[in-house]
Amino acid sequence: MILRTSYFYQIRNFKRNMIPVSTAIWDPKYFHNFTGDYNYLFKDKRGIVNGLRCLPIIECGRAAQSCKGPEHCAYNPQPACPFLKSYRDNLEQLNINTLINDFNYLASAYQTYEHINDEIAIVLIVYETPKNPCSERKELISYFNSRGIDCKELTYPII
């Protein structure tokens, strides 16, 4: 299993061996097939699973200080943003072993069920593009890398 980050818009470019897992407090409606149910899983027309959410990471965002957006940010440029600092502090409270075990289990079960030979990529999904300096992706990448778990922005092909 490999771990990457990306954003919702890019799911349309995913391959079958990529599993998008939302880390956002609120997902776009299409990610749950417009059902309004955050527990609804489905495959899109290309066969990519949608609707999976990583609740431990989502709770880090809920617990973090609120962000008013980059246009209202008194802390631009980064890294003084209290939201991202609070978000990272909350990530530090997670049980990394449980999280990685869950990701590995998901990847293994999915690979077996879908008969996929390629390595599975768990892709942690955020809203913002990589160009947005206020994205939680930087904290997610830093958090996993600081624990010896390779995590970076998804690029094609996956390396």
Secondary structure layout plus pairing:
Blueprint: E1 2-7, E2 18-22, E3 42-43, E4 49-50, H1 55-63, H2 82-91, H3 96-114, E5 121-126, H4 137-145, E6 151-153
Parallel strand pairs: 1-5, 1-6, 2-5
Antiparallel strand pairs: 3-4
Helix content: 25-40%
Which blocks of ≥5 consecutive residues have pLDDT under 50?
A: none
Task: Tell me the strand percentage band.
Answer: 15-25%
- Put simply, the count of helices is 4
What's the end-to-end separation, in Å? 12 Å
List how many beta strands DSSP finds.
Answer: 6
Report the biggest beta sheet as strand number plus sense, adding barrel if it closes: 4 strands, parallel
Whole-number radius of gyration?
15 Å
Shape: globular
Oligomer: single chain
The average pLDDT score comes to: 90
Helix-strand sequence: EEEEHHHEHE
Strand order of the largest sheet: 2-5-1-6
The count of domains is: 1
How would you describe what is shown here?
The protein is α/β, with parallel strands linked by helices and 159 residues long. It has one domain. The chain is 30% helix and 15% strand. It is built from four helices and six strands; from the N terminus they run E-E-E-E-H-H-H-E-H-E. A four-stranded parallel sheet has the order 2-5-1-6, with helices on one face. A two-stranded antiparallel sheet has the order 3-4. A hairpin with a 5-residue loop joins strand 3 and strand 4. The radius of gyration is 15 Å and the shape is globular. The mean pLDDT is 90.
